[in-house]
Every structure is written in structure tokens, then in C-alpha cells.
């Protein structure tokens, strides 16, 4: 086996001048370990299991695979390559795929540190089982099956089960089940075509083998800034095999001077039992500079778990000091009013490198916010947004039907995402649902509304650093006349300027019906008097045939300017243009999906510059 590589290098980025000159991260995660890793990407043996025989026949004990496939990739791509097709074949009900590869037994360092081996999947799914040399593995969280396809998961390895040459076997299953989080991938309810896309599932992100300490900090950090008091509250998760007394040490550095003295150091003695424990710790950062799109100041956190022998297990992350809130009609970042010039972003099948180019291009368009539309992206994209000063609005990939089971799956996906997207100062808004997909009975079913309200309240208590939208676009929930959303958002698609102005006047004047596809608010009566910020969170769609509007790029750019000017004349706190790139049947993008080249002038969406705001 090739030598295990360090977990991050010191190669300087050759990206645009906005790119960070800090250590570049080769792994799809936001929080790093200064340990060793070995990527298991590359050629794997591969087979489709159309009759789902593999479990019954024990393929994990040995199987002759017919094909090979490159990991990471998608089941759809691998099926196409296996059959020699140029077009990716569709599957209409269920797909089961098996992958297997060998790796040599890794060698530990000679310092006799209390370490073990761990395998981490950057993302894989929807349903994943993993075997090592024929033994079924259980995730760190104790499950023999991992569900979900947007977030990472890990397995600790028992060294007694490692051989000189090891076989890692992975079974991936997915279906068209409308009750699981799908985003805009087709299902039994919404079929491929128009705004619904082909499935893209399976081995979609890297997998790696690494050394980790037996007693350590998990690679997830929550950050809540209290900027008025120069305080930062960190949420840390410990993973313990050997109960005892430990010290948790936090050191904060200027990210531009990590070799200098720490700006702040704090020790916290803890008695820790076996298992996992989440712990909040507060540090003081005097004279800290605030993070904003105009000045994306970042700090570097080194968190160490130190045992009684003085051995330190370490994780590292960057963070920023910022406060984002809604007051009346307005939004405030660090206690200063801000207007959101946003754009809808659907990454689709884009690679990490393409997503990087997209982020820089959207910055050139003049956006200060990107709405990542009901999809999970590589965590390094959140880090990039922190570095270049781009606000992010993230969303839970939606199921396509409203049932008790779909709500359970939705909640599980939300919690998986929150655990890994709580560090980044760029993330300011979360949407629970979009256009009532997966909550189609929101207007008539009290159970659906109660679940969304309970989730909203949970988010506001546990994650106060975020604003939360209950159901983006329309049919927000009112309970006793109070909106269960921090924002009153509306999706408005009209190509006519006169109608556009009329609808904007109606919304800002408090009209709740006849301004979007469905009433803006459901539940108890709601009377809008400016008590919530109004966001036009989808508009335009120019170039998409179903929405009308100009296809000519110059005319499209001129229409966008006019529409933006009309919004800035009114009591509107922000807008999100639809959309960044063309994707499948939606041909309304403003930049090239592959190169990131703009189709329209730079700063077209920057109404802050145009209005002097």
C-alpha cells in the first residue's frame, strides 16, 4: 500500500486571488485532523444486483465481480460504463450495487500513541452497508446500516480483524421512494422532466482510511458568536474508549498567523465516560474582528483532548465572528442592515472543482448570498464561502410525500446535516421545506404543521446562530397569528414588469393571497404589518420555457436590472434570482456549468453597488 499521506498539505492554492493561501484540504470535510490518511478512491470492483441476491448469497464473503468502476462516482455512471452506453441508463424502482477493493494493512507510527484506524465515507447512499473481510461493520453511531446520501459517516476498525491484504465490501441500495429525502431527484411522485432531475446516487464522495486516537474529539464543531461580549461558544463532541479525567484545551489563532502566539487559550477539566458526549465551552476573544462578505475575517481553532499521560488528540477548524438576525422588515449582519442579493444554486452532478468555479463566478455576479437548493454539497464549498465572503442559505433535501415516515426521514437528514454544518460563519439561513414538497398537506393536516413548528422551535433553541424558514415560497405557518418562520418568503415568476410591480406592492402591503401559486400563509389568521422581513426567494427563471421571459442574453440582463430596481424601491429585505447554471431541462443559468464563465455582465445582481446600499 502506498504510504499514508498527511491529512492536509501546505501547498499554496493556484486558484483566483480570492482563494485562501492556508493549508489546502484534500478531504471532503470542514474540520481537520493533523493525522495520516490514505484515500481509497480509484478503481473498485463493481456489480449491479438487479434481483437483490447479494445479501442472501453472501457476496461480502466472496464474489466474482463483472465490472470495475471509479470511486467517487454515481451508480448511474457506473451502470452506463458497465454496459458500454454513452447515455446514463435510468432505473425506475430500485437499484442495488456492490463495490469491493483491496488495501494492504496500514502501518502505525512508531511512537506508540493510543491510536486506531477508521474508515470514513464522505457521502454515500441512500442505504449503505460495509464489510471488512466479510465482517459487517457498525458506524461510530452504532448502526449496521447508514441511511442518507449527503453527509459523511465513519467506522472504527478492530485491528484484530485486519489482514496483510484486506477486502472492503460496500453494498449501496436506493429506490424511488417518495418518503426519503430526495431534493429534486425524481421519485414515484415526481417523475424526471421539467424541474425534476435524474437520480444521482451511490458512491458520490471520497472514502479514506485514517489513523485516529482512541480518545478524541469528533470532527465537528459548533460555533455561536456573542459579538457584543467578544465571546465564542463552541460545541465539541468527545469520543471516549477509556473513561477517565481529561482536559479539553481550546487555542485560538489569527488564521493569517497560525505560528504566532494564540490570541486566546482556555483549559476545561472534564471527567468523561465511555461513548460520546456533546459539550459547550465558551472562550473569550478580545478585540476580535467580525466576519462579513466585505471583510471575511477568519480565526483558527485548535481543540485538544489531553489525557492523564499528557497525550493530546487534536482537531482544527476555522471560524468567524458574526451575528445575523431579523428585526421587523430588515435583516442585520453584525448589527448593520444588509440587503440580500442572492442566487439559487443547484449543483447537480458538478464536481468539486466545478463547484469552486461556480462560487467564484457567483461572487463576480455581485451576489452576497447563494441559496444551495435542497441538496448537499462537498463541505469544502462551505469553507470556500467562508474564505471569499459569500453568505449561504442551505436547505434540507425534501421528501416527496407527507407521511409520518417522511417526517422521520426528514428530521434524521436535518440532524445529520446540522452536525456537520455548524462551524461555518457563511451559513446564515436554513429552510426546512421548499414549496411544500414533502409537506403537500400543510394547509389541511395539523400533524404536518405541528412537526414543522416543533422543528422550527428546536432550531431556534439549539441553533440560535441561524435564521429558519418553515416552508420556502408560500404556505408559511401562522400559529395564533405569529409566523413560524423568521422570514416571509415568496416565489414569484412573472416575465411582465407591470405585473411584477403589482405583485411586489401587494406582498409588501400585506396581501397574502393571489400573489404566489398558493396563499403565503396557512393555519391561523395572519396580518402582516411589517413584523417580518420579506424575501423574494425565487424570481426570474428567464430562459426556462415554463416561466416565459427573454431568452436573449442581453435582453435577459436588461430585464434583470429592471426587476432588481423595482424590488429596491420597496420594503423588501432581499431576493434570490433563479438561477446560477443551466441544469437538465432548466435552461435559465447565468454562468457555464463547467467553466464558470459568465453569460451576462459582472455585478449584474449587485443592487447594493447600484443603489449605494
From TrEMBL:
- Chain intervals for the UniProt region annotation (Disordered): 1-29
Here the segments flagged for biased composition (Polar residues) are 1-26
**Location of the Glycoside hydrolase family 2 immunoglobulin-like beta-sandwich domain:** 232-322
**Alphabetized GO MF terms:** hydrolase activity, hydrolyzing O-glycosyl compounds
Would the keyword Lipid biosynthesis be found if you checked this record's keyword annotation? no
Task: List, alphabetically, the InterPro entries matched.
Answer: Beta-gal/glucu_dom_sf, Galactose-bd-like_sf, GH, GH2_Domain-Containing, Glyco_hydro_2_cat, Ig-like_fold, Ig-like_GH2
Domain called Glycoside hydrolase family 2 catalytic: residue spans = 327-443
Q: Which UniProt keywords apply?
A: Glycosidase, Hydrolase
SUPFAM superfamilies xrefs:
(Trans)glycosidases, beta-Galactosidase/glucuronidase domain, Galactose-binding domain-like
Superkingdom of the source species: Bacteria
Please provide the Gene Ontology terms (biological process) for this protein: carbohydrate metabolic process
The family classification in the record reads: Belongs to the glycosyl hydrolase 2 family.
Q: What is this protein called?
A: Glycoside hydrolase family 2
The species this protein belongs to is Nibribacter ruber
List the top taxonomic levels of the source. Answer: Bacteria, Pseudomonadati, Bacteroidota, Cytophagia, Cytophagales
Amino acid at each position: 500500500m502506498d504510504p499514508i499521506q498527511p491529512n492536509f498539505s501546505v501547498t499554496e492554492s493556484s486558484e483566483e486571488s480570492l482563494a485562501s493561501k492556508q493549508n489546502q484540504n484534500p478531504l471532503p470535510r470542514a474540520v481537520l485532523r493533523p493525522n495520516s490518511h490514505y484515500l481509497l478512491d480509484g478503481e473498485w470492483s463493481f456489480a449491479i444486483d438487479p434481483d437483490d441476491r447479494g445479501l442472501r448469497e453472501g457476496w461480502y464473503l466472496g464474489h466474482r465481480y463483472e465490472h470495475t468502476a471509479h470511486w467517487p462516482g454515481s451508480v448511474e455512471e457506473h451502470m452506463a460504463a458497465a454496459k458500454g452506453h454513452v447515455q446514463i441508463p435510468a432505473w425506475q424502482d430500485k437499484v442495488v450495487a456492490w463495490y469491493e477493493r483491496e488495501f494492504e494493512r496500514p502501518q502505525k507510527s512508531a511512537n506508540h500513541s493510543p491510536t486506531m484506524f477508521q474508515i470514513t465515507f464522505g457521502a454515500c447512499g441512500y442505504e449503505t452497508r460495509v464489510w471488512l473481510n466479510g465482517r459487517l461493520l457498525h458506524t461510530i453511531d452504532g448502526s449496521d446500516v447508514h441511511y442518507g446520501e449527503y453527509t459523511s459517516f465513519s467506522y472504527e476498525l478492530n485491528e484484530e480483524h485486519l489482514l496483510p491484504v484486506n477486502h472492503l465490501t460496500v453494498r449501496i441500495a436506493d429506490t424511488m421512494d417518495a418518503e426519503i429525502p430526495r431534493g429534486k431527484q425524481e421519485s414515484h411522485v415526481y417523475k424526471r422532466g421539467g424541474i425534476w432531475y435524474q437520480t444521482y446516487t451511490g458512491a458520490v464522495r471520497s472514502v479514506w482510511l485514517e489513523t485516529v486516537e482512541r480518545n478524541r474529539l469528533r470532527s465537528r464543531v459548533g460555533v455561536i458568536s456573542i459579538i457584543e461580549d467578544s465571546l465564542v461558544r463552541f460545541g465539541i463532541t468527545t469520543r471516549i474508549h477509556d473513561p477517565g479525567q481529561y482536559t479539553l484545551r481550546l487555542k485560538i489563532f489569527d488564521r493569517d498567523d497560525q505560528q504566532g502566539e494564540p490570541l486566546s487559550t482556555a483549559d476545561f477539566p472534564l471527567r468523561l465516560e465511555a461513548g460520546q458526549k456533546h459539550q459547550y465551552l465558551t472562550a473569550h476573544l478580545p478585540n476580535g474582528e467580525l466576519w462579513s462578505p466585505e471583510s471575511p475575517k477568519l480565526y483558527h481553532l485548535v481543540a485538544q483532548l489531553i489525557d492523564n499521560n499528557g497525550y493530546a488528540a487534536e482537531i482544527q477548524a476555522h471560524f468567524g465572528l458574526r451575528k445575523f438576525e431579523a428585526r421587523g422588515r430588515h435583516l442585520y449582519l453584525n448589527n448593520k442592515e444588509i440587503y440580500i442579493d442572492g442566487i439559487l444554486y443547484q449543483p447537480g452532478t458538478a464536481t468539486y472543482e466545478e463547484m469552486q468555479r461556480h462560487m467564484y463566478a457567483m461572487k463576480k455576479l455581485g451576489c452576497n448570498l447563494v441559496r444551495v437548493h435542497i441538496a448537499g454539497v462537498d463541505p469544502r464549498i462551505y469553507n470556500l464561502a467562508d474564505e471569499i465572503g459569500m453568505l449561504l442559505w442551505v436547505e434540507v433535501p425534501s421528501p416527496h410525500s407527507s407521511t409520518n415516515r417522511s417526517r422521520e426521514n426528514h428530521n434524521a437528514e436535518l440532524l445529520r446535516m446540522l452536525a456537520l454544518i455548524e462551524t461555518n460563519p457563511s451559513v446564515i439561513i436554513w429552510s426546512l421545506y421548499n414549496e411544500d414538497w414533502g409537506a403537500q398537506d400543510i394547509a389541511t393536516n395539523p400533524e404536518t404543521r405541528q412537526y414543522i413548528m416543533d422543528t422550527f422551535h428546536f432550531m431556534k433553541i439549539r441553533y440560535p446562530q441561524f435564521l429558519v424558514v418553515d416552508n420556502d415560497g408560500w404556505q408559511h405557518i401562522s400559529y395564533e397569528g405569529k409566523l413560524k418562520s423568521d422570514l416571509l418568503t415568496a416565489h414569484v415568476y412573472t416575465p411582465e414588469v407591470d405585473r411584477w410591480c403589482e405583485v411586489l406592492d401587494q406582498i409588501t402591503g400585506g396581501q397574502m393571497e393571489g400573489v404566489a401559486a398558493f396563499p403565503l400563509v396557512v393555519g391561523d389568521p395572519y396580518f402582516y404589518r411589517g413584523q417580518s422581513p420579506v424575501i423574494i426567494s425565487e424570481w426570474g427563471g428567464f430562459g426556462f420555457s415554463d416561466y416565459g421571459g427573454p431568452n436573449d442574453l442581453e435582453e435577459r440582463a436588461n430585464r434583470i436590472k429592471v426587476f432588481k430596481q423595482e424590488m429596491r424601491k420597496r420594503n423588501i429585505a432581499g431576493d434570490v434570482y433563479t438561477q446560477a447554471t443551466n441544469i437538465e431541462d432548466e435552461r435559465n443559468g447565468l454562468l457555464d456549468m463547467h467553466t464558470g464563465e459568465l453569460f451576462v455582465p459582472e455585478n449584474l445582481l449587485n443592487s447594493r453597488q447600484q443603489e449605494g446600499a
